[in-house]
Design a protein that fits this description.
CATH superfamily of the largest domain: NAD(P)-binding Rossmann-like Domain
Strand content: 5-15%
CATH architecture of the largest domain: 3-Layer(aba) Sandwich
Order of helices and strands: EHEHEEHEEEHEHHHHHH
Radius of gyration: 22 Å
Number of strands: 8
Distance between the termini: 57 Å
Helix content: 40-55%
Strand order of the largest sheet: 3-2-1-4-5-6-7-8
CATH topology of the largest domain: Rossmann fold
Largest sheet: 8 strands, mixed
Shape: elongated
Amino acid sequence: MIKNIVFIGAGNLATHLALALKQASYNILQIYSRTRLSADILAKQVDADSCSDYAEVRRDADLYVFALSDKALPSALEALKLKNKRLVHTAGSLPMSVFEGYSSCYGVFYPLQTFSKAREVDFSKIPLCIEAISIDLESELLLMGNKISNSVQLLSSNQRKQLHLAAVFTCNFTNHMYHIGQELLQEEGMDFDLLKPLILETAEKVQEMPAQAAQTGPAVRFDEDVIKTHEESLNMHPDFQKLYRFVSESIYHLHSKKK
């Protein structure tokens, strides 16, 4: 039975997940971070010990949650040598097999959300994607997941990888577009608040209809006059200009297939 948990990592995701598990009556034993201050801050929030040295990581936990970057995970596993311990990572892009050779009991506990430490989230609305090497661990992770989320799903490593890819398009790339819009407005002394109602309406529409059906704008019909004017306005931003053309053509080709 999982009750006592050690977190390896104290970043945005680790912070929100540790707080959610603490609220669900799990005991967070310890927080590790290579930055001692980060470990101390999160440990204080969840009444846990803290450390910044792998040699100080406790060995008596029921579960070790690795909330690290994809690049940092292998070296952490090599340094910790947590043989026969229950291990999970929280990444969307890494296969469960990354744990092979380091433990015989491992899985994935992936919350599909974008996290920032300073912004509160309702964890009950966050989809949790679970995978495990055994039925026993799967059952325990499902139990833990259902205590903090109303949306818990079993996904394979391939499914989760595809989900993470889709999330990059719908979240990370979209946020980059927000940044470009903000920069273009600032150049003419305008406030990003002007775009916020449009952003909200666009997000609301895809809650009710397919994204393709919600698409509007000059690229759908490939209005060359409008597109040319926009591209000329981007002469001082050649990277934005290339992106504008590429995305416009992608939208047009997708919608022309419907005709």
